[in-house]
Predict the structure of Rhamnulokinase.
Amino acid sequence: MKSYAAVDLGASSGRVMVGRVGPDSLELTEAHRFPNRPVRTPEGLRWDILALYAGILDGLRAAGQVDSVGIDSWAVDYGLLDADGALLGNPVHYRDTRTQGVAEKVWATVPAAELYASTGLQYAPFNTLYQLVAARSSSQLAHASRLLLIPDLLAYWLTGVLGTELTNASTTQLIDPRTRDWSYDVAERLGVDLGLFAPLRRPGDPAGLLRQSVLDETGLAGPVPVTTVGSHDTASAVAAVPAMGGERFAYICTGTWSLAGLELEAPVLTEASRAANFTNELGLDGTVRYLRNIMGLWLLQECVREWGDPNLGDLLSAAAEVPALRSVVDAGDAAFLAPGRMPARIADACRDSGQPVPESPAEITRCILDSLALAHRRAITQAQELADHPVDVVHIVGGGTRNALLCQLTADACGLPVVAGPAEAAALGNVLVQARTHGLVADRTSMRELLTHTQQLTRYEPRTPTGAWQAAEARIADR
């Protein structure tokens, strides 16, 4: 067996996980977990990147000797380096307001339909392209020599080696998913300097060795390689979908966001796909992650925070007793993107649409979970139609697998069996790419077979007719 450290950074916490992999075994343990607390400064919302780096060093120290390190995180955000390689400022958080109204300016130069045909990326106001256009007149960008996406920035601090990992780069809206290279025409027309980006690298490529100073700080004995993984956490999570060979599946990666879609061999760049707001992000081995971003458990996380962190199990039990589909909201509505006042905003959305207004935490929680299941249904149904790619089962991976009510509601809404697990999909995908690179796993199929044999999975069969869900979907469509 060999040991691999998976640095897995989410929107609210980071962790260093240790995966131990053998020919027929896969064990994952948590070495260290640390908070990820964005900071609101006078300039706006920023990531505390130094605290994250310190958490990674603490995690590597706790992990002990490993054969390799891989890093994955959320997408789109970046740090800027000066000519000496020093960070010019804390990276801007994707929920910062600086990109408001920027998309319309971009579309005036490259119409939305053209942009989608070139990059295949769904509209989201925080895409890296819009962030760069918003920062065009900033002194930081004017003095920048390099731009590194968050996992690449952290890998650079660990190794001193510069690179831009492809699956994460595909979320910038500057990659052509057909060529798997930069969209030079889009960048030129919008004045984006692609020279800021380090050379592209792919999952499995070497990303350097831990610096001597890092070895001294963590107590590890070198050399310890850093291996490029699917550094967008969704790419790593999809790599860890435990699908059987030949199985026709959809996936939902659940957590702060829900990413619901299909694994395809080629992008879908039609106007209908753009109108439905599906994205074509790149995955392992030339695959395309054809999916829609849904607000996800962020809605519930924000409510729980405002309610003073009540016991989640008790809250979900109470929500299960609330009548189904009494009130639903559009879980993809940008009105829910910003933090703060989430229970009141959900109640307002129900009131404005003429539905019963949820008042108690249980009622609001049930509204959120019904709405998420409905959004899952809508995304999976439309993805099959737009890609002409029918499925027989839905795999749910990530933190939402621990929410049995959400998993059952998703099976009911989709009218398909749901297989839930593993919960730590991003970390497992990270570990398995490292293991494959070092010869312990043969290919993507072998990775998934190992997952099905070693991870705890729960199957949920549809229990209710889909007619009520169709009616609820019509309620949202009518608004």
User: Anything to note?
Assistant: The first helix runs from residue 49 to 63. The chain has a mean pLDDT of 96. The chain has 19 helices and 21 strands. The chain has two domains: 2-231, 232-421+457-478.
